[in-house]
Amino acid sequence: MLGTCIENVRKTVPLVHNITNYVTVNDVANVLLACGGSPIMSDEPEDVADITAICGGLNINIGTLNQRSIEAMFVAGRKANELNHQLLLDPVGAGASALRTNTAVKLMKELRFDVIRGNISEIKTLAQGSGTTKGVDADVADAVTEETLDEAVAFVKKFSEKTGSIVAITGAIDLVADKDTCYVIRNGRPEMGKITGTGCQLSGMMTAFLVANPENKLEAAAAAVCTMGLAGEIGWSRMQEGDGNSTYRNRIIDAIYNMDKETLEKGAKYEVR
Questions:
Q1: Can you spell out the DSSP letters for the chain?
Q2: Which residues lie below 8 Å from residue 231, measured CB to CB, with a gap of 6+?
Q3: Which of 64, 70, 82, 118 is deepest in the core (most CB within 10 A)?
């Protein structure tokens, strides 16, 4: 039951280390608090091993790379693997530059990730080892649609088998899969794309869900995606005249803060393939 996953987050209050981008770092912290987790941020190479050691999960987001943070990602990632902590990769903008693409590919080669979460263009770039994206947004040519859904489900399962990681592709239709099973999720609002960092927020929250539900990681990842999408729907339904994307961001975070097992179970829109 997906609702049990969010209950477990609130019961266990997982501490999550985030090496994330400075565009969205504050929102990632607030979403983690809203879902019942506890955030800590550090990207100093001399600091990250100690910080990761006291946490249950590590969220690595490559959105604003520099040489110091890249070094920190490998140091923290190796420590997380050593301690068997939950480890998530968010390859923001992979395909947009050689540095982003090469860093993400090297991270995947040297570290063992429980989940890789990105848009379809980013995930295709990682699957190919190269590619192009429209900045940090998915290329419209790559979009998962009802027409391309069967092909996309087969792709995400195959990529999961190749990497040994759960793969979460988010967009108009979300896919969360291991090599055998794929959750096809249809929660969310197109207006969420007008807010910077809903994907980054989801990656932080998903890491908390993984830490709180280590025996049901696929279900936990799917529950996190449903929670974010449903929060987008609830937040949008509460918008007033004159509200804009700044208010919408806050309403999404508030909806996550107030999300409970019953609301998630009732509002989650998914099928399993």
A1: -HHHHHHHHHHH--EEEEE--TTTHHHHHHHHHHHT-EEEE---HHHHHHHHHTSSEEEEE-TT--HHHHHHHHHHHHHHHHTT-EEEEE-TTBTTBHHHHHHHHHHHHHS--SEEEE-HHHHHHHHHT----BTTBPPGGG---TTTHHHHHHHHHHHHHHHTSEEEE-SSSEEEE-SS-EEEE----GGGGGSTTHHHHHHHHHHHHHHH-TT-HHHHHHHHHHHHHHHHHHHHHT--TT--HHHHHHHHHHHHHT--HHHHHHH--EEE-
A2: 252, 253, 255, 256, 259
A3: 118
The position carrying tokens 């961001």 is 249
Domain range 2-272, its CATH number among 3.10.310.10, 3.40.50.720, 3.40.50.970, 3.40.1190.20: 3.40.1190.20
**Can you give the pLDDT of all 273 residues of the chain as single tens digits?**
899 999 999 999 999 999 999 999 999 999 999 999 999 999 999 999 999 999 999 999 999 999 999 999 999 999 999 999 999 999 999 999 999 999 999 999 999 999 999 999 999 999 987 555 555 554 545 788 899 999 999 999 999 999 999 999 999 999 999 999 999 999 999 999 999 999 999 999 999 999 999 999 999 999 999 999 999 999 999 999 999 999 999 999 999 999 999 999 999 999 999
Closest of 153, 57, 156 to residue 113, by C-alpha: 57
Phi, psi of 167 (to 5 degrees): -120, 125
Which residue, among 176, 239, 240, 179, has the nearest Cα to 202 in the 3D structure?
A: 176
pTM, rounded to two decimals? 0.95
Strand-pair partners of 149: none
